[in-house]
Amino acid sequence: MAVESFREAIRLLTRMPLLWVPGLLGGMIASAIWLLYHFTGAFFTSRLILLFGLVLLVAVVGTLVLLRDKGGDFRTMIRGGFQYYFRVLLPIMVIIFALVIIFILLMVTFGFAGITPDPAILSIATICVLIPTLMLTFFFDIAAVFEDRKVFESIQRSIVLVSDNIGAVLAFYVICALAGVTIIFALMMVWEIALFEKLEPITQFNETQMAAFTPEELMAMIGPDGIWITAAVLFLAGLLLIPFITTYKACFYRTLSRAQVPIRQESGEYDSKGRWYKY
Known about the structure:
The protein is mainly α. The protein has one domain (2-259). Helices cover 80% and strands 2% of the residues. The chain has helices spanning 2-15, 21-40, 42-69, 74-83, 85-112, 119-137, 140-146, 151-164, 166-194, 196-199, 207-212, 215-259; strands at 268-270, 276-278. The longest helix is centred in the C-terminal third of the chain and has 45 residues, at 215-259. The chain is globular, with a radius of gyration of 24 Å.
């Protein structure tokens, strides 16, 4: 099921050019954030990340509308993006709020137990809470657009679908991870090859020098050319990863939904002789 959806996603990406619009926009945003961070600092850049994310969400939601309708033009994509925008944004806010509440409750529990949480405990707690939550609610946006579900209905639909098809969903996550790692590794190789001459001194570092090496020293080593090359690599990462994940997730959700056979609950009663009468 996951492999079949993967093939369908690749086929759609080659046939529907508009599916690449979120990747194009996301790549531009990733490059812009990187350049702004380098030239203006973290204070100004952090304010723009949220704004850029809200803009990118319109394109992603519009892409889901195209995938649901199996086609459409750019106007349909933008109109659908705004139509279902809050259907997707509000569940995101609900999930974030729920995670914050869970972490607050964990801190309160640690406090009552007299435990001072160190970074290791916090990391384990974060992983134990964050990963299952994201895995269970990963398909809420598809449910909101494909099935026109409301805020809590879309989250519930995702949780039920994942819980009932855990094996297929795990296969989906494995394929997503493998594809993502492959793309990132390939882009890292491109980055290292493009900056090989500037990065070559690092190969001569001993363990002490490597331990003391800072990101600021790396930026100074690669220079202005390296900054722009890094921006180009980030653009390619967004261009490839966002359309793939969005399209693959939508195709897998559709395949998974078709595989589910709804169970109709008939209403009726038995008489004194054990015979069933349907209303």
